[in-house]
């Protein structure tokens, strides 16, 4: 049995191409240098084209309103295991659809404006080589496809223009200003993937992101839910509906997930590696959906979204760049 329910459409700043769906069930190194990158510790990986967290060199030591960490705090190890995709015990009573993921590292924070600024400074449309950024846990992942270069801005000037997708809510500024510790928004999927590869990582798969937000087999309702079935949400858990714009990353420590990731729900929604499909493939082990379709999945909800979009089980998909979308990177464990 397959059930799709549309949720929270009126509160999403999505284009007409975008959809929000909730699935109950489905079938079918920081650059080498004396200072190094604060908190780095990820490696580029055998197939990576980037230097681990090169975006972190020279950034301020503090990130977020209450945090004393760097915006480049060490990527957090997510211990692999089994769980049910887009499922939580409160929203659904179906048995769910099983998946397994292997160990991986997922950045503690979303990509910030300050980190993305380093990427823009070195940007070229052909900077990511073919095959770079392969997921070491998924042999079917072919990494970067050079045909995707055509979907990237032609040069750094065009990229800067693209990042100004909304005069009211965009976080990018051409010169460093007050937003350096806020998540970069106005990213499309290609920008997000290219950045993560350049930075020595990759985008997490949908299964990996969902696993981290669900607390793995705990199947948390929200990333912070303890006990896992607790649907409790308060203003201190996530930056969500009722707020005026994005917040500095890490400003809601009470909302951290099981493995220490901040802002998995709220602030900006996060692109993941997969194309969107209506039906999950079953069973799934370290799987990635790469069908060449125009829409990709983003998850976690954003600062202006209602609580239904912030559930660990909620899915969203689209193609355009808007002010509610950013990303975080996954890395080798």
Description:
- The chain has 333 residues and is α+β, with helices and mostly antiparallel strands.
- The protein has helices at 113-122, 156-162, 189-198, 206-213, and strands at residues 3-6, 19-25, 76-78, 81-85, 97-101, 104-106, 269-275, 284-285, 296-299, 314-318, 325-326, 330-331.
- It has a 6-stranded mixed beta sheet with strand order 1-2-10-9-7-11.
- The longest helix is centred in the middle third of the chain and has 10 residues, at 113-122.
- The radius of gyration is 18 Å and the shape is globular.
- The protein starts with a strand and ends with a strand.
- The model is unreliable at 1-48 (pLDDT under 50).
Descriptive tags:
4 helices, disordered N terminus, about 10% helix, about 325 residues, three-stranded antiparallel sheet, about 15% strand, alpha+beta, six-stranded mixed sheet
Helical coverage, percent range: 10-25%
Distance between the termini: 36 Å
Largest sheet: 6 strands, mixed
Strand order of the largest sheet: 1-2-10-9-7-11
Overall body shape: globular
Number of helices, where a helix is a run of at least 4 consecutive DSSP H or I residues: 4
Task: Decide which structural class fits the backbone.
Answer: alpha+beta
Mean pLDDT: 83
Run of helices and strands:
EEEEEEHHHHEEEEEE
Strand content: 5-15%
Radius of gyration: 18 Å
Poorly predicted ranges: 1-48
Compute the number of strand runs: 12
- In terms of quaternary structure, the protein is single chain
């Amino acid at each position: 049995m397959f059930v799709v329910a549309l949720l929270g459409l009126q509160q999403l700043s999505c284009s007409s191409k975008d959809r929000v769906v909730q699935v109950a069930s489905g079938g079918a190194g920081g650059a080498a240098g004396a200072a190094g990158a604060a908190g780095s510790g990820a490696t580029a990986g055998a197939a990576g084209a980037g230097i681990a967290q090169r975006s972190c060199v020279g950034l301020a030591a503090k990130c977020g309103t209450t945090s004393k960490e760097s915006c480049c705090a060490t990527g957090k190890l997510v211990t692999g295991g089994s769980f049910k995709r887009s499922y939580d015990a409160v929203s659904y009573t179906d048995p769910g659809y099983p998946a397994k993921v292997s160990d991986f590292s997922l950045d503690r924070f979303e990509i910030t404006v300050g980190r993305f600024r380093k990427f823009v400074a070195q940007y070229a449309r052909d900077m990511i080589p073919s095959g770079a950024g392969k997921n070491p846990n998924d042999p079917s992942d072919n990494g970067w496809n050079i045909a995707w270069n055509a979907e990237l801005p032609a040069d750094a000037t065009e990229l800067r223009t693209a990042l100004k997708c909304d005069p009211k809510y965009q976080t990018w500024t051409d010169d460093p200003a007050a937003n350096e510790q806020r998540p970069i928004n106005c990213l499309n999927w290609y920008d997000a993937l290219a950045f993560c590869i350049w930075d020595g990582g990759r985008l997490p798969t949908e299964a990996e992101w969902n696993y981290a937000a669900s607390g793995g087999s705990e199947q948390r309702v929200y990333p912070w839910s303890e006990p896992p079935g607790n649907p409790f949400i308060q203003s201190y858990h996530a930056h969500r509906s009722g707020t005026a714009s994005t917040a500095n990353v890490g400003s809601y420590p009470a909302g951290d997930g099981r493995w220490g990731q901040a802002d998995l729900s709220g602030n900006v929604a996060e692109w993941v590696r997969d194309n969107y499909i209506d039906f999950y493939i079953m069973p799934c082990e370290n799987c990635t959906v790469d069908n060449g379709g125009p829409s990709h999945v983003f998850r976690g909800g954003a600062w202006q979204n209602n609580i239904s979009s912030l559930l660990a089980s909620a899915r969203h998909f689209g193609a355009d760049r808007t002010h509610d979308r950013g990303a975080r990177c996954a890395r080798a464990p």
